[in-house]
Design a protein that fits this description.
Distance between the termini: 56 Å
Oligomer: single chain
Largest sheet: 2 strands, parallel
Strand order of the largest sheet: 1-2
Structural class: alpha+beta
Radius of gyration: 17 Å
Number of strands: 2
Shape: globular
Strand content: 5-15%
Number of helices: 4
Length: 103
Amino acid sequence: MEFRKVICYSDFMDVISLVHGSRPNYHHYMAIVLRIQDLIHMDWEISINHILREGNSCADYLAKNGATSTSTFTILDDVPYELKHMLFSDVIGTWFARSWLFL
């Protein structure tokens, strides 16, 4: 028997709460939340963890890039130049200080 483990990270605590919490009657993305909950209960180990945006720079870059794209679906055949530096920082374990904005 093959054992599978999936580790997911999100910087959006509301999503994690929705996925782990009870099923609200109405929510804009309820169909997606229900599908994620179904996937969690399959024959594998899944953990969904919170991560600060600073620790998730690659995903943040891809999300922003996708939000400004006119394409509905994109396949990346190669790592974008800007993302290569972020991936390298991840590989060598670079820590980034959390910036705070005081007004």
